[in-house]
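Example 3.2
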Amino acid sequence: MAVYAVSIVGLFPTAVTNLLDLTRLDLHNNKLTGPLPPQIGRSKRLKILNIRWNKLQDVIPPDIGELKQLTHFYLSFNNIKGEIPKELANLPELRYLHLHENHFAGRIPPELGTLQYLRHLMLSSPS
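Structure, written as tokens:
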């Protein structure tokens, strides 16, 4: 099951995390605000999470590490801050990790080096 949405304004719609067969969530290029909710960890079958080009804030919840089937995680061009969570290393299938153009602080977690399928990592700060 896939969900694509356009013209969403406001907080991340946590109701989509109740869709237990969801494999692709594409909410890119909307006007989502607030944090990425910890409930995202309930979407255990999620393979692609595309939430780039929004106005999401706060930190990436550690619950992101529950998405064991995730292969693509696009979070670029938001207002995420804090540290890059080491829990991303708990995603054994992760191939694409795009976190650029956010406001992260701290070091890149060395645990990311254990992601054997990671092929594309984008980490840069806004100019």
